[in-house]
Amino acid sequence: MANKRHRVVVLVRPGLLPMELGIVHRLFGQAVSASGEPLYDLVTCTPRPGVVPTDTDFTINVAEGPEALEHADTVIVPAAQEDYEPQERGRIDADVARALARIPRGARVASICTGSFVLAAAGLLDGRRATTHWKSCDEFLALYPEIEVDADVLYTDDRGVLTSAGVASGIDLCLHMIRTDHGAEVANTVARGTVVPPHREGGQSQFIERPVTPPEQCSTAPAREYALRHLDRPLKLAELADRASMSVRTFNRRFRQEAGLTPMQWIIQQRVDRARQLLEKTDLPVDRIATDAGFGTGTALRQHFHTALGVSPRAYRCTFRGTPDSGADTGA
How far, in Å, CA of 188 to CA of 76, rounded? Predict the structure, then answer.
């Protein structure tokens, strides 16, 4: 007798982001065995069957109700428009809560993007590591301090409960689950068929826009303004303290209070952000960008860039400019 297919049930809510539903069906739907047999059964359900509004100008018609969850091996909760509104701790639609209560013990549960707020409100993320879209991470952490929030990663997998960052991170999450279930070969085949990388480098920090802007007026502001104008130069702590008319000890203490970082940590962050801008907007080689951003050498830039963002300067430039690998990361 043929093995029972793994049943993936997607729980959608009013205000659904259609792309997130499409991701699940497209990726799991392409996963097949060596003989070409589908490896997953896919079902879409909703707490109240019928026409479900989306965040676009069209609706979807969902025939299956919450009882579909009772036979799920994996449950996926995509984001909905309500997740982007101000949240309250533990707030969850009563019908959604009753639907989640139908999930059998041992089933895998996952969310895409801000669908993580639903899992958190239902208590499914308590004591676990999780992520969500970077714009919502601060709110998520403030509401649920018992959850270990990782704001940088594309997805998390903690003891059978998974979360992903932005919408497209749902692709990374689904490929991870397919890879876990059936191995890299099946997942890679699905990725090739969808024309996406089987595994993306780095986390979501590389997608957070942090423009280099003058600091707000405060006691160490003159030193920071000076540093921003001279990032390409070596910057000594005593020099910056003198710009703020403080002793080094007082400057260190005040800087930590105002910026939340040591002066050197802050300078490295600004230099990384300057390098990001140059990689996105210019064709300068990496060694030149390293000089202009104050890192001195391409090697130093690569080390700090990878520490901060999890990717190389070349990979970052390719991601944000679509530039092929033409030696730009070698100083050529």
Answer: 21
69/29 Cα distance (integer angstroms)? 18
Nearest to 169 by CA among 134, 138, 142, 136: 134
The phi, psi pair for 204, rounded to 5°, reads: -85, -5
**Percentage above 90 pLDDT, the chain:** 56
The model's pTM is 0.65
**Which helix (H) or strand (E) element contains residue 99?**
helix 94-100
Tokens of 24: 């699940």
Structure tokens at 173: 């999450």
Cβ-based neighbour number of residue 105 at 10 Å: 4
At position 101, the amino acid (one-letter code) is A
Two tokens, residue 107? 């089933």
Q: Cα(200)–Cα(135) distance, rounded to whole angstroms?
A: 20
Rounded distance, CA 318 to CA 157, Å?
A: 28
pLDDT confidence of residue 331: 39
pLDDT, averaged across the chain? 87
Is residue 61 within 8 A of residue 49, CB to CB? The reply is no
